[in-house]
Amino acid sequence: MTAFASGMSLRINDALLPKLVSEFGVSLGTAAQVVSLFATAYGLAQLFFGPVGDRFGKYRVIGWAAAACAATAAGCAAAPGFDSLRIARALAGATAAAVIPLSMAWIGDVVPYEQRQPVLARFLIGQIVGLTTGVWLGGFAADHFSWRAPYIVIAVLFAAMSVALLTLDRMLPPDARVMKLANGSALQRVVSEFASVLSRPWARVILGLVFLEGMCLYGPFAFIASHVHHVFGLSLSAAGALVMLFGLGGFVFAVLSSRLVGRLGEVGLARWGGALMSIALLAIGFAPAWQWALGGCFVLGLGFYMLHNTLQVNATQMAPDRRGAAVSAFAASFFLGQSAGVTLGGLCVGVIGTDRFLALGAVGVLCVAFAFVALQGRRGLVGALTAT
C-alpha cells in the first residue's frame, strides 16, 4: 500500500500537465518540471536513504519516510503558485525516495535469491497500480476538480500507511529488523557504501543500463496523456484512464512472472521486454486512431516490467554485502534517468512533436534491452571460462 501511494505520487502530474499549463500560464515543457524535479530529488536522495536504511533498519525507515511523504504531499496541495509547487514536488520526491528501493532491499534481505524475482514482482503490483491510478486520478481531477485534490488523497494515504508500517515494524522478528553498527562519520559511511558498490564492474553495467532505461521510457511516458489529449481530443480523464492500461500490462507480468521466468530466463525476458516496449511506443506515437493506444499502453507495461524486473533482480545481488546501498544506487540511476528523459522531452516536444519523441524512446529502450542481453552473455562466458 505504501508502494501504491509512492507510485501515485510519482505519476500524479502526467495527466495534470495540460491543466497546469492553463492554470499557471506556462508552456508544456515548463509544466513538466514538476515531474523532472520530483524524479531528480528522488534519485539524489538515494545517496542518503540506502546507508540510513542499513544502519537504522529498512522497515523502520520506510515507516518514517511515509510520514514525511504525507507532509510533503500536503505541501503540494497548499502551494500558492507554480514556483512553490515546484519546490514542494522536489521535497516530495526526496521523501518518497525511501519507499520502493528500501522495500526491495528488505525483500532481498529476507527472501532467498532463487525465490526473489516472483516475490519482487508481486510486491511491485502495489507500485504498478499506484502508477496507473496516479495518471487516472490526475486526469480526473483536471476535468472535474482542482489540481490540488489528488495531493490531499496522497497525503491521507501516506499518513495511514505510516501508522501501519511503524506498528508492524515492532512485530517483525529480529532477523528482519537487522541494523548495522558502523564506525566513522555519516558522510564517510555513505562514501564507503557507494564506493564499494561502484567498484564492481557488473554493478556499473546495471546502473548505466537502468539510467538509460529510465530516460528512454519514462521521458516519453510522461507525455503520453498529453499526446493523446492533443492529437485525438480525448479528455484528460479519458487520456489518464487509457494510460492505466500500462499498469494492467505490469499486473499481468506480476501474475505470470514465475511462469515467464521459468520459460524465458533473464535474457529472454530482457530481449522480449525491449522489443515489446519499442513496438508499443511506435504504435502510440503514430497511431491513426486513439484506440491503437489502448493496446500500445498495455504492451508497453508488459514489456517494461519484463525488462525492469530483470534489472531489479540483478540489482539486489550485484553487491549482497551492501544491498541497501546497491538498490538505492539502482533507484537513483533509474530516477535520474527519468528526470533526464523528461527534461529532454520538455526541450524536444515543442520542436519535433510528441510523436517523434516517442519514436526516439522506442529506439532507446530496444538498445538498452539488447545491450543487457549482449553484456549478460559475455559475463556468463567469462564466468564459464574462469570456472574451466
Notes on the structure:
The protein is mostly helical and 388 residues long. It has a single domain (2-387), classed as Up-down Bundle (Growth Hormone, Chain: A), CATH 1.20.1250.20. Helices cover 85% and strands 0% of the residues. It is built from 15 helices and no strands. The chain has helices at residues 2-11, 17-24, 28-31, 33-56, 58-77, 82-96, 99-110, 113-144, 149-169, 186-198, 201-221, 224-232, 236-285, 292-317, 323-387. Helix 7 (99-110) packs antiparallel against helix 8. The chain is globular. Mean pLDDT is 81; it is low at 381-388.
Observed structural traits:
disordered C terminus, mainly alpha
Compact description:
The protein is mainly alpha-helical. Helix content is 85%, strand content 0%. Mean pLDDT is 81; it is low at 381-388.
CATH homology superfamily name: MFS general substrate transporter like domains
Count of the separate structural domains: 1
Given as residue ranges, the uncertain stretches (5+ residues, pLDDT < 50) are: 381-388
Quote the distance from N terminus to C terminus.
47 Å
The whole-angstrom Rg is: 20 Å
State the share of residues found in helices, binned by percent: over 70%
Task: Kindly name the structural category.
Answer: mainly alpha
> Which CATH class?
Mainly Alpha
SSE topology sketch:
Layout: H1 2-11, H2 17-24, H3 28-31, H4 33-56, H5 58-77, H6 82-96, H7 99-110, H8 113-144, H9 149-169, H10 186-198, H11 201-221, H12 224-232, H13 236-285, H14 292-317, H15 323-387
Helix pairs in contact: 1-8, 1-9, 4-5, 4-6, 4-10, 4-15, 5-6, 5-7, 5-9, 7-8, 7-15, 8-13, 8-14, 11-14, 11-15, 12-13, 13-14, 13-15, 14-15
